[in-house]
């Protein structure tokens, strides 16, 4: 009897188990088939989407495909080729304003390098592009498109290795670019943690991973994963980073590992050339007047291509293949484009109005007007009003926040000391207004010489030629000290129509003298005063400017080192 009961129970258990496994199998099958059904549906949808495409945007059609197609930027391209196309390619940072060809140059330089037989870049060298503004990562290292990550078994997606407890390293951009170029746009926006990891990879030329699931003696783990954990994943690439920020905003540790290259703003002529090329590539012809007007509105190459694209669409709507002046004007009007500000110097001789030079953004030079007005007042009771400058600045350094008077204000004070001590001009005897017009707050020490000339001119009523420009820091002993961005400043002075530019002696370089503008290096204010005021003093009535009451300033006194030094 007991046997029968036991057999019945066993049979029942067998049946229950059988039903259980049958149901499991069935549900697995139905899950599989529903996955397949869904996947097939999605695949069809994807195929349909792939078949649908709009026409290629003009911005893509016009993208330069070789360095030769990049308009202007001769110096930048030469430096880029020197850094990347030789035997020992370097890491590079390209600085420059937006839309002037930085990305275009970076994308095409690898082709140029591969063509050179001495280059270590092979024919399969990869160009991997990342944008630091959109790059995201997980601080635990679970997901990191730049560095790569480890898929630990605990996380979904570990696949067959998951149940076996095997961590899987996944390559990031630094490894995908191995043997080629990793291009990071807007490098200034890279998260500091990522920046530090990148610096380490640049140093090691490998990327190392860690995982709590990795054990050296685990024989289940495949050999290649052991090698990656123990020796690192290869990441030997050359970095090309681009930025619209200024060099000071880029971490010094990265800068010191890279060759720094500068792309400049495009000239009107270059923008005209880019517009013409864009029109041709888009299947249009474009009138001369249209190109010329377009160059007044477009700030850079990207703007130019965009205006051509919209103007071309206008022409197409009217079945035309020629872009006219009216098309460009209509685009400018309807998109509220404002003509690009053009600063031009004049041929006048002006009292108190002087051209300084400045750089802003990545490396854009500009002429900066400085104007001074001085009225005699009760001796030693004068006041100076300064407008248009940065009042004070805060410097963040290693967690400390330091506040100081702006450097341009310090320059003004230096100029006042030099006027008193070297040029016998007591600014306290005048009510002075020193203004930096233009709406952009001015800072930096490089306006020192221009400030000094402006104040001297206003106080003594001696006109200054407006077709000259100045850059240089001034010391309280009247020495002219070196400043940054001189090449850009000289280019800006030339663009504005200046005939002469005074630069600090220590900034003098031979290439500056081949820019089509007279570049005059000066060591101290004696040289500047002699050169700038000599003509005016020679021709001035009476040849006589009372400076302090006792001191008389004459053409001779400003042209020789003896009196003013
Ligand atoms: N110097 C140039 N020569 C020819 N085309 C140019 C030049 N500069 C810009 N362009 C045109 O503008 C487009 C955008 O240029 P690109 O992306 O290289 O600019 P960028 O300097 O990298 O700007 P951003 O800093 O905004 O990324 C290019 O695809 C090209 O059509």
TrEMBL record:
The portions of this protein that span the membrane are: 6-25
Coiled coil: which residue ranges?
Answer: none
Provide the residue span(s) of the region labelled Disordered: 33-65
Which Enzyme Commission number(s) are on file for it?
3.4.21.53
GO terms for biological process, alphabetical: protein catabolic process; proteolysis; regulation of DNA-templated transcription
**Top-tier EC class:** hydrolase
Q: List the catalytic activities from the record.
A: Hydrolysis of proteins in presence of ATP
The entry lists its GO molecular-function terms as: ATP binding; ATP hydrolysis activity; ATP-dependent peptidase activity; serine-type endopeptidase activity
Bias type Basic and acidic residues, positions: 35-47
| Stretches assigned to the Sigma-54 factor interaction domain | 92-264
* Organism superkingdom: Bacteria
Annotated Lon proteolytic domain ranges read: 348-535
> Keywords in UniProt for this one?
Hydrolase, Membrane, Protease, Serine protease, Transmembrane, Transmembrane helix
Q: Where is the active site?
A: 446, 489
Check the record and name the PANTHER family matching this protein. Answer: ATP DEPENDENT LON PROTEASE FAMILY MEMBER (PTHR10046)
In the record, the note on similarity to other proteins reads: Belongs to the peptidase S16 family.
Name under which the protein is recorded: endopeptidase La
Q: Where does this protein come from, organism-wise?
A: Congzhengia minquanensis
Gene that this polypeptide is encoded by: lonB
């Amino acid at each position: 009897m007991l046997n029968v009961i036991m057999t019945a129970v066993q049979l029942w258990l067998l049946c229950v188990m059988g039903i259980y496994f049958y149901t499991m199998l069935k549900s697995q099958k139905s899950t599989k088939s529903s996955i397949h059904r869904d996947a097939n549906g999605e695949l069809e949808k994807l195929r349909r989407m792939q078949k649908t495409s709009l026409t290629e945007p003009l911005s893509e059609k016009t993208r330069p495909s070789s360095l030769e197609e990049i308009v202007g930027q001769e110096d930048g391209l030469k430096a880029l080729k020197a850094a990347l196309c030789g035997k020992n390619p370097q890491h590079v940072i390209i600085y420059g304003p937006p839309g002037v060809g930085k990305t275009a140059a970076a994308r095409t330089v690898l082709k140029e390098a591969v063509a050179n037989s001495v280059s270590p870049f092979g024919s399969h060298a990869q160009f991997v592009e990342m944008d630091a503004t959109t790059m995201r990562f997980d601080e635990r290292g679970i997901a990191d498109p730049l560095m790569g990550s480890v898929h630990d078994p605990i996380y979904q997606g570990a696949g067959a290795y998951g149940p076996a407890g095997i961590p899987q390293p996944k390559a990031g951009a630094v490894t995908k670019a191995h043997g080629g170029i990793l291009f990071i746009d807007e490098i200034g926006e890279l998260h500091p943690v990522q920046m530090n990891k990148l610096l380490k990879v640049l140093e090691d030329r490998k990327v190392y991973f860690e995982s709590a699931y990795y054990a050296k003696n685990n024989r289940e783990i495949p050999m290649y994963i052991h090698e990656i954990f123990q020796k690192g994943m290869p990441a030997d690439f050359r970095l090309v980073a681009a930025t619209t920020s200024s060099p000071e905003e880029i971490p010094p540790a990265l800068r010191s590992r890279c060759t720094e290259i500068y792309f400049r703003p495009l000239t009107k002529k270059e923008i005209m050339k880019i517009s013409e090329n864009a029109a041709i590539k888009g299947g249009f012809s474009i009138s001369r007047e249209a190109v010329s007007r377009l160059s007044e509105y477009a700030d850079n190459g990207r703007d130019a291509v965009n205006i051509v694209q919209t103007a071309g669409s206008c022409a197409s709507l009217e079945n035309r293949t020629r872009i006219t002046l009216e098309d460009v004007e209509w685009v400018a009007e309807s998109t509220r484009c404002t003509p690009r500000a053009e600063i031009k110097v004049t041929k006048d001789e002006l009292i108190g109005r002087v051209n300084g030079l400045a750089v802003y953004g990545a490396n854009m030079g500009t002429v900066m007007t400085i104007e001074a007005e001085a009225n005699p007042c009760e001796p030693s009771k004068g006041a100076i009003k300064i407008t248009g400058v940065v009042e004070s600045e805060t410097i963040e350094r290693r967690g400390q926040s330091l506040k100081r008077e702006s450097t341009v204000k310090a320059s003004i004070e230096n100029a006042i000391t030099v006027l008193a001590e070297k040029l016998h001009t007591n600014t306290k005897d005048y009510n002075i207004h020193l203004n930096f017009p233009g709406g952009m707050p001015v800072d930096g020490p490089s306006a020192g010489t221009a400030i000094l000339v402006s104040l001297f001119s206003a106080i003594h009523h001696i006109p200054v030629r407006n077709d000259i420009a100045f850059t240089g820091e001034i010391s309280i002993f009247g020495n002219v000290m070196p400043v940054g961005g001189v090449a850009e400043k000289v280019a800006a002075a030339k663009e504005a129509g200046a005939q002469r530019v005074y630069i600090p002696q220590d900034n003098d370089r031979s290439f500056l003298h081949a820019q089509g503008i007279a570049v005059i290096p000066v060591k101290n204010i004696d040289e500047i005063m002699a050169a700038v005021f000599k003509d005016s003093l020679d021709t001035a009535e009476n040849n006589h400017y009372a400076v302090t009451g006792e001191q008389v300033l004459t053409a001779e006194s400003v042209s020789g080192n003896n009196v003013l030094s």
